[in-house]
Automatic annotation (TrEMBL):
This is Glycerol-3-phosphate dehydrogenase. Keywords: Oxidoreductase. Its EC number is 1.1.5.3. It is an enzyme of class 1 (oxidoreductase). It comes from Taklimakanibacter albus.
Amino acid sequence: MTEQHKIYDLFVIGGGVNGAAIACDAAGRGLAVGLSEMQDFAEGTSSRSSKLIHGGLRYLETYDFKLVRDALLEREILMRRTPHLVWPLRLVLPYVASQRPRWMIRLGLLFYDYLAKRKVLKRSEAIDLRRHPAGVALKSDYRHAFAYSDCRGDDARLVIANLLGAKRAGAEIWPRHRFVTAVRAGVVWRITLERVSDGRQFTVEARALVNAAGPWVVDVAGKMQIPVGRKLRLVRGSHIVVPRQWEGEHGYFLQTQDGRLMEAFPYERDFTSIGTTDEPWEDAPEKVAISDKEIDYMLAEVNAFLKKPVTRADIVWSYSGVRPLFETGGGRDGDLSTLTRDYSFEIDHEPGQAPVLTVFGGKLTTHRRLAEHAMQKLCAVMPWPADSPSRTDILPGGDVGPAGLEPYRKSFKQRFAWLPETQADRYVQQFGTRAEEMLKGADKLADLGPLIGADLHQREVDYLLDTEWARTVEDIIWRRSKLGLRLSPVEIGRLATYLKERPTLPQSL
Ligand SMILES: Cc1cc2nc3c(=O)[nH]c(=O)nc-3n(C[C@H](O)[C@H](O)[C@H](O)COP(=O)(O)OP(=O)(O)OC[C@H]3O[C@@H](n4cnc5c(N)ncnc54)[C@H](O)[C@@H]3O)c2cc1C
């Protein structure tokens, strides 16, 4: 069945971090915005990243200076815009005699510090691992290292924060609605969407379209008959998660035996995340999965550094994603890790015709900037406000006050002193100030409803269903939170039963 719906100024296809950020920026300019995502939000690449909000030290080696500078500047903007979801990470890069010379690393880090224009983050320094706490977990062969600052963040929740920002500004958000086709009818696009749950189709209209479908971008462009003049390379990256391997909040940036760089850092309080890989991926993006070879590679590389080896039996979780990279003539032959991670756009537009902007590539770190830049391109051909609100606005949950997250966390814990400390910490990290909305009217643990498992109560599940578009067990335990690391199979079953029995509001329509 096909039925007619409303006219948007801008319609965005893809609810990963880039589509969400574009919707947020456009709605913040006062435009009527719609966004459709065929799966759950962030179910594509945007929940499968290394979670670094970084300039990308490794990209200095491929002379991607513009990407590094732009990304470095974003770190502090995002720490202000979403302070609960982006936080500093001190990384330690051990010196390895057979790899990059010490002067080269020092010079690279000086350049990194120079490009960054830091206000909050600490500058880089040389450290002696024989005396520094970061040396304790490492084999005694490693004596010298460099420490420098980047950030890490919660990728999937950054997507939700941007969508909540878009919704706050009036955008309509359509999860689990597949874009089927779009036909240009003069100054509007006629867009057919399909509700995934029952196959019901309907049409919306928009004065402009954005294709932010990440690894599916070429497929989506085909459905609107827009030619794409570049070759897409899908590159798989995988991670393993193991119980926490060292004391302290620092991470390690490790030089691998094949000359790459790999991270290992504290994750979700009790765990360590290790990754990533760069492997060609020829199959459909949704089928991506970790291989035994990647696991062996990551274990061997991390164990070359750590005093206490990590084994296969330690792995509690693993995940994989695909990077949609585009061949632009750069990069070293055959070396996928050297293909550019920067974004680019193509805009298809003629006077009197509704435009479509296609987004290629991009990083989690640069999502805000990419959105601002995408809107600049569209504003050049549409009569829309030229100023982006995103440099100064604070996304929902981020309004912790000018003193920053830590004073807010302290006051939150005082006001909700009846919450166990780790649960209070998790709420602040996950929801920021929105935790107070979730806890409204509660003054003891029993007010949060039955315990499902770990520290997940029914109140939180209801809040995720009602305000964050969550529907399935996976939405809740792997994207809105990482409680999948803590829940037993019985507890996961309990959550599934609750979701089956609880009536939910329809998602849009
Ligand atoms: C292994 C790995 C590690 C990474 N590490 C980092 C890092 O540490 N730091 C960093 O800054 N970046 C990192 N990145 C890059 C970052 O994750 C991506 O740049 C970012 O997530 C891309 O977001 P996106 O919105 O473009 O794509 P996606 O998140 O993939 O979103 C595209 C969405 O479009 C939807 N879609 C597709 N077709 C349709 C359709 N027909 N209808 C409706 N919806 C559709 C998909 O379901 C998907 O959700 C990493 C990437 C990988 C793979």
